[in-house]
Specification:
EF-hand-dom_pair; EF-hand domain-containing protein; mainly alpha; 5% strand; EF_Hand_1_Ca_BS; 85 residues; two-stranded antiparallel ribbon; EF_hand_dom
């Protein structure tokens, strides 16, 4: 089971992975975030989650979009129900 990062932790992981410094993640940066928080998905799963999380269809994931995705994948105060969600 993966432990849920606090809001500050998630912000730090997001900032570290945002190599462009533009407050949004491309697909590669998104994968870096997932690795940093211990979610191991296949490339196809990462691509699928990326496309689903990109609700405004701009080709990037914002921090709010990332939080929504993680909550939809089962993040709760106790951790993740299933990292493969």
């Amino acid at each position: 089971m993966t432990t849920k990062p606090t809001g500050d932790d998630l912000l730090a992981v997001f900032a570290r992975s945002d190599l462009g410094g533009d407050d949004r993640l491309d697909l590669m940066e998104f994968g870096m975030v997932l690795d940093s928080i211990g979610l191991s998905w296949t490339r196809a799963e990462v691509q699928d989650r990326f496309e689903r999380a990109d609700t405004n269809r701009d080709g990037f994931i914002s921090l709010p979009e990332l939080r929504i995705l993680l909550e939809a994948q089962g993040w709760s105060e106790g951790g993740v129900r299933s990292a493969r969600g």
